[in-house]
Amino acid sequence: MLSRRTALGLSVVVVLSACGTRAAVDTETPRPVLRIAMRPTELLSAFLSLPQFSIQAVPIGDSQKRLEALQEGSIDVTSAVADVTFLASYGRRPDHSAHLQRIRGIALMNRAVVHLLIGPNVDPRNGFRGMRIVLGDPAGGNSALGERLVNSMGVATAAIHGEFAPYDAAVDKLLKGAVDAVIATVQPAQEPIARALRGGARLVEIKGPAVDRLRVHYPLLRRTLLPGGTYPGQNVALHTVGVDLLLVCRADLDTEVVYQLTRALFEEIPKHVRRQVDPHRAPATVIPLHPGAARYYREREMHR
Questions:
Q1: Phi and psi at residue 218, in whole multiples of 5°?
Q2: What pLDDT band is residue 18 in, cutting at 50, 70 and 90?
Q3: Domain assignments of the chain as residue spans, ordered by start
Q4: Residue 160's pLDDT band (boundaries 50, 70, 90)?
Q5: What contacts 189, CB < 8 A, 6 or more positions away?
Q6: CA dist 172 to 62, 168, 169, 177, 199, Å?
Q7: Which residue, 123, 303, 108, 133, is CA-closest to 222?
Q8: φ, ψ dihedrals at 226, nearest 5°
Q9: Phi, psi of 207, deg, nearest 5
C-alpha cells in the first residue's frame, strides 16, 4: 500500500499535470478564418493549403459582385480586375451607384489578357453579327467586358446570341460547333485556350478603334501583345488588350491577418504559383493598400 505522504504527492502531480494540459489547450490560438472569393485557380488552391489559416472558398460572380460582398462584409478577400475596382472604389461606376469605401489592396497581380477565339469553321471577315458567343465565365473577373467588346466592334448586343459558361465548357461548345466564338479574360497561358487551338480554333486580334471605344468604359485597359509561341500554332505576336488583376480585402480585416497572408503570398505558396505576382509591382495597387500589406512591403524593403 502507498503511504499517505506518497499518495498525497501523486495527487499533487496529477492535479498540476491536468492544470498544465488545460492551460495549453486554453492558450492555443485558433486559426483565423478567411472567406475568399475567386475563380478556382492555382492561387486559390495554394491559399487553401496554407496551414495557418482556415480558408473558406466562397463562390460569387464577377469582380463587381465580389467587391460588393467585401463592402457588405460577407467575404474577407477576393480577386478583381483593376478597372472595376478603381471605378467602384472612387464612385465612378456606370450606374452612378455609391462608391465602395471598405476595400483595400493587398497586391497587384499579373495582367489578365482578353482572348477572342473563333471556331474552326467560322469566317471572322463576316463580322460578329448573328454569332453565338460565350461572352465570359460567370465567375470571371469582368462579365460585362465581353459584351462591351462586341459593342466596340460595332455590333449591338441584340444582334448576337450571347451566353456565359466556364471556359472549359465554353471550349467544348466551340469545338463542337455549338457556339461560334468565345471571349476569355485570363492570365496566359491557359490550358482551355491551348486545347481550343489544338482543335482548330483561332485567336483573333483586338486592335484599332475598337480598343479606344472599349477604353471609354475601362480606362485601365491596356493594349497588350501576346508573345508568339504562347500557345500551340501561335507563331507570331498577337495584338489584344489586358487588364491587371488585384488581390483585395475588407478595410477592417485584422492587420496581423493581412500581414501574414501577404507574407505567405510571397514566401510560402509554391514558386510556380508565385509567378502570378511580380514582387516589385505588387504594392502598386490602384486603391490604398491595407495596413497589414503595407507593413509587409516596408519590412521587405528594409531587408533588401
A1: -130, 85
A2: very low
A3: 33-111+245-302, 112-243
A4: very high
A5: 230, 231
A6: 22, 6, 5, 9, 10
A7: 108
A8: -85, 110
A9: -160, 180
Q: What percent of the chain has a predicted confidence (pLDDT) above 70?
A: 87
CB 113 within 8 A of CB 185: yes
The three grid cell numbers given for residue 161, joined into one nine-digit string: 446570341
Q: Which residues contact 177 (CB under 8 A, 6 or more apart)?
A: 119, 121
Q: 65-106: per-residue pLDDT in tens?
A: 899 999 999 999 999 988 889 888 876 655 556 678 899 999
Q: What region, left, alpha or beta, does residue 96 occupy, with left being phi > 0 and alpha being psi -120 to 50 degrees?
A: left
Provide the Cα torsion 278, 258, 33, 20; round to 10°. Answer: 120
What is the model's pTM?
Answer: 0.78
CATH class of 33-111+245-302: alpha beta
Amino acid identity, residue 37? Answer: A
Cross-strand partners of 161:
132
**CA 231/CA 192 separation, integer angstroms:** 11
251: which 3 cell numbers?
Answer: 478595410
Q: Note whether 114 and 182 are within 8 A (CB).
A: no
Q: Which of 105, 49, 41 is nearest to 77 (CA)?
A: 105
CATH 3.40.190.10 fits 112-243, yes or no: yes
Q: What residues form DSSP beta bridges with 249?
A: 77, 104
